[in-house]
Amino acid sequence: MNDAEYSVQQLSQLSGVSARTLRWYHQIGLLEPRRVGENGYRYYGPQQADRLQDILYYRALGTPLAQIKAYLDDPAFNRIAALRSHLAALQAQQARLEELIRSVRQTIQAQERNIIMKDEQKFEAFKRKIVAQNEETYGQEARQKYGDDQVDQSNEVLLNLTQEQYRQWTELGQRIQTGLEQAVQAGAAPESPQGRDIVQLHRRWLAVAGNDYDAAKHRGLAMLYTADPRFIAYYDKNTPGCAQFLQDAILCWTPANAGEQSESADGPISCCNQHN
Question: Residue 42 phi/psi, 5° resolution?
Answer without folding.
Answer: -90, 140
